[in-house]
């Protein structure tokens, strides 16, 4: 898996929150970051760890980045057999992009699964981060939101190339 330098992620997420015109994230607003990973089966431990890391990082920050509240929504990409399925991954990505408060999607640990979610998330201009642990990914997101300040627009595309 190709890794993208942390500075590039911070810059790209800064663009996500502060970049291109459009509706802004106002002071006191709540934004959502979605995490999709298998929570059961052979990959369940890694998936639960991804979600827990993201939640812990938000908790360490007091649930805020600057003057914006941040919530983590963990979605189970597991199918009936416990491993991820294309149907669940696609459903998770669609659920995230249908949420008007979504600013980022921490993608599945598996490269094949990300091939399913990436086009959905990318088309909706929601930032996707993959190939990082939950805490590291969430740390980048929190710093980008905090650096952007309030009244920052939320439309832009960030697509982590890790996994292409």
Task: Name the features.
about 160 residues, alpha/beta, 5-stranded mixed beta sheet, two-stranded antiparallel ribbon, 5 helices, about 20% strand, disordered C terminus
Report on the structure:
The protein has a five-stranded mixed sheet with strand order 3-4-2-5-6, sandwiched between helices. It has a two-stranded antiparallel ribbon with strand order 1-7. Mean pLDDT is 79; it is low at 1-12, 14-23 and 150-164. With 164 residues, it is of the alpha/beta class. 46% of the residues are buried. It contains five helices and seven strands, in the order αββαββαβαβαβ.
Low-confidence runs of at least 5 consecutive residues: 1-12, 14-23, 150-164
| Number of strand elements | 7
Biggest sheet record: 5 strands, mixed
- Helical element count? 5
Q: Taking Cα atoms only, what radius of gyration do you get, to the nearest Å?
A: 14 Å
Can you list the strand order of the major beta sheet?
3-4-2-5-6
Topology as H/E string?
HEEHEEHEHEHE
Globally, the shape reads: globular
The class by helix and strand makeup works out as alpha/beta
Strand content: 15-25%
């Amino acid at each position: 898996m190709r890794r993208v330098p942390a500075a590039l992620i911070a810059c790209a997420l800064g663009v996500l929150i502060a970049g291109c015109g459009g509706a802004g994230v106002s002071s006191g607003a709540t934004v959502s970051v979605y995490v999709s990973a298998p929570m059961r089966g052979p990959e369940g431990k890694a998936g639960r760890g991804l979600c827990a890391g993201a939640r812990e990082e938000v908790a360490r920050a007091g649930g805020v980045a600057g003057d914006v509240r941040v919530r983590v929504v963990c979605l189970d990409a597991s199918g009936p057999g416990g491993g991820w399925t294309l149907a669940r991954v696609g459903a998770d990505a669609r659920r995230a992009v249908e949420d008007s408060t979504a600013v980022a999607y921490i993608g599945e640990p598996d490269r094949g699964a990300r091939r399913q979610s990436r086009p959905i998330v990318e088309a909706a201009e929601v930032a996707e981060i993959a190939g990082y642990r939950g805490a590291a990914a969430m740390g980048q997101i929190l710093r980008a939101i905090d650096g952007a300040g309030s009244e920052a627009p939320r439309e832009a595309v960030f697509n982590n190339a890790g996994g292409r």
